[in-house]
Amino acid sequence: MPLYKTITVNEETSLAIWMVDETEENLWTGIELTPYCQNRFNGMKSELHRKAFLSIRHLLAKYGYTDADLIYDENGKPHLKDGNFISITHSHNFTGIIISSSEHVGIDIEMQRDKILRIAHKFTPFEEYKTLANTAAVVRKLTIVWGAKESLYKIYGHRGVSFLHHINVQDFKFDAYATTAQIIFESNLSNYKIRFLEFEEFTCVYATRDKE
């Protein structure tokens, strides 16, 4: 099974990444979906999406969970029935989950693509990145910032939160593989730790919420 990488964040928190290169038929091995998730699966026209959906169930199995242990709230946010925190992501042929028994968590995987340059002004003050050496470095940094904000949005779970106006990611160096972030929304401030890694021209960012 192509389990690509696992990371132990701390004693209570861990993440796993899957590289999807099996056939859809092979990914069904050992998987049983709830009626709700089977209905979602049946509505997926893209084979890539169906394979990603199944691979995430294999990642759940790594932590002792089945599809029946996963529930979704009215906003589509996933939860585990035992109360542990979970976040899920997929991008092209990579999927990932992060699970914690003690911390609110979020994860995002993104392909590094030049198209992010065209939408950067929608989620971050672009002027902050003009000092970088070349376009490739700008793309890398913007992808990390976007992934951080996606991860934070998944944790926060409130409609109306703006990536540009409410989520602030502190500047960072690539070799630090970490930074911090804040969400300021409706006069409430919350703080987060951000960590990231890059592989195969993809970026994975994961976030944990600071305990109050």
TrEMBL record:
All residue ranges annotated as the 4'-phosphopantetheinyl transferase domain in the record: 105-184
InterPro entries: 4-PPantetheinyl_Trfase_dom (IPR008278), 4-PPantetheinyl_Trfase_dom_sf (IPR037143)
Keyword Transferase belongs to the record: yes
Protein keywords: Transferase
Molecular function GO labels: holo-[acyl-carrier-protein] synthase activity; magnesium ion binding
Entries under Gene3D superfamilies matching the protein: 4'-phosphopantetheinyl transferase domain
Superkingdom field: Bacteria
Keyword Iron-sulfur: no
Protein name (Swiss-Prot/TrEMBL): 4'-phosphopantetheinyl transferase superfamily protein
